[in-house]
Known about the structure:
mainly alpha
Amino acid sequence: MMKSSVLFPGHPIEPDRNFYPNERVPSLVLIENGxxxxxxxKNFSTCYSPLRMIELGIFGHGYFGIxxxxxxxxxxILNLVPNFSGQLNExxxxxxxxxPQKFSLNRYGIRAGLxxxxxxENKWIHSDDPYGWFNxxxxxxxxxxxxxxFRQINRFRSFVKxxxxxxNGYCQKSNVPIDQAEYKYQKTCQGLLQWAWDYKVDPFGKx
Length: 207
């Protein structure tokens, strides 16, 4: 019998899966060693597809609902990435367009990371992907290749290895098994999810 999460009483902990149910997976995407990889770039692997990330709960259900980006930019993404927009059912739309964001709806019930204005101040945003890294990831996952890929992949690798290493250290000091980290270190788990990584997976050796 599947146990319930102590964070969400009565809600079973789902077995890991990389994709949204019945998702149409792009031809460049494959699964290797339990993670998503890309046939044309072996330096980049993730745990979740964009649709699966949205299903789990990221960015307070409002990643594309923020008001400091022109709403026409979201329409542009839908037009440019038909394989993504064609799979946006009502459940998924409700999890990306909420304004204001409600972080209690996140997978781990907590806010993680800086807001969009801080991303701009830190010059992390490329004008072709005005919402940020997840915007870039959607387009990369569905086949676009871009001059900003190297920078964004390096940002991903740095973030995931650094934060997973911190999480692993916390767990060792607290004598908490890494697969139970969500019960004590929700913010770090949420942060990793928003970079398409499952906190239970050791990234070292994966990319």
